[in-house]
């Protein structure tokens, strides 16, 4: 089941991201994002808020998704009808059939645990009949169903599909004796085999996804869910804004250009991280105990300096925040570290240098440094409390740290450094890098994005950043694409400062340590201070970006670096499996298994 689960997870997620969403965004525009978020969020909120009716909420999402897939199957049947008039009719038919097979398999595994095999077979038969009906009624169907309304409905359906796939209901009957898929340390004896099986299933899913999508990416198959005749084709072209004008291969080209641009900088970041770990095997963020009594300004500067270079996101920063307090660090030092570490990182700094240029990289470093210091000073004075447990915590942590010290031999330190830079760090950053590149490649397909008001942009940012812990590394290519599309530098600054640090994971940590009211005030204070910085900023970087002026520049060493990154990320996927890989994108405290798992 682990291999099959990973296979379905990769194939369906990939088909949704690369096959369905680009057409939905192109036709439905920015409102498609709202319907997508609604379809994904409502069943999830119902299940987490009303545990007593969680099964009913999930069952409703399953039935709605099955209904929507049947509706989508009708358009697939219409696409098959046009294969006879296509120059590449065999590839068109093969592409449609290939992407329907894993969908049918997923429907079976989604419905059978809840409703039994009979109803699952009935739904599959109904979808097959809908596909045949779409084939027979192709011309009038496409004429009546085309438009933003259809795109919004499909976005809603895609959200429910993503919900039930992430929820993994087909795993329920097989999970009583297995360990939770979000915690791979509960069963040491079963973990390696399960993870490797999931890794193999994930790689097979990647190969299958490439077989399905490559004809579309190469332009040998036209997407058939949008417009199909000359009249409709002309209509769509008149409503699409310049930002969304793209061929079938433009998303792939944009993804390749971004990947080539960031690959050498990623390799350099991993090398520097390994070198830092070799030179400083003990976490240099852990201060001496006497720093707790030092001046708050000095503490804030030291905490920001310690946190900014580390390539970590909020969950790891939160754990280190507890470690710092237990080690006897001052409140201001720990807060500066907690705020600074998710904002930057050596990897994010190098990616900014490669995509946006040295001016943007240095400006980003300076802005995040000032933001961390000022917020740490303000919050530190407000949250001042006696370090009553610092001594005992420090002694306990010191002994634990000493016991974890590697051997002084250079070979042992080198092995640990390599594991840190090319295994641990890649496991935590690869999902965010891939997500950032994919979203950056797909984003220009969203019509009307460049006309979104600033307040609406901030609202979208809040809706995304609160449930997730956005990584500064993965956010960098996305920010580059937005700036090239005309995003205002003021909005870019707010995204840089608030995206990585304003989320539920950090709010839960602050609530547990300092109370809910203080946690809310701290989060609101960071938002207000970020807005104030946009008004008081004395200098803005140039709007001319290196990647924008020469996006197709490539050299052999860029391709070699990209090949090395692909190998490293593939090993990480094989080692962990797709679900643990993607779990890095989700909040640590917010992704809890359902009771029936």
Automatic annotation (TrEMBL):
Cell membrane as UniProt keyword: yes
GO cellular component, one term: plasma membrane
Residues spanning the membrane: 29-46, 52-71, 91-111, 117-137, 149-166, 196-218, 258-280, 333-356, 362-383, 452-470, 476-498, 519-540, 556-574
InterPro entries per record: DUF318, UPF0718
Polar residues bias (residue ranges): 390-406
Residues covered by region (Disordered): 390-410
UniProt main location, coarse: membrane
Membrane topology field: Multi-pass membrane protein
Official protein name in the record: Permease
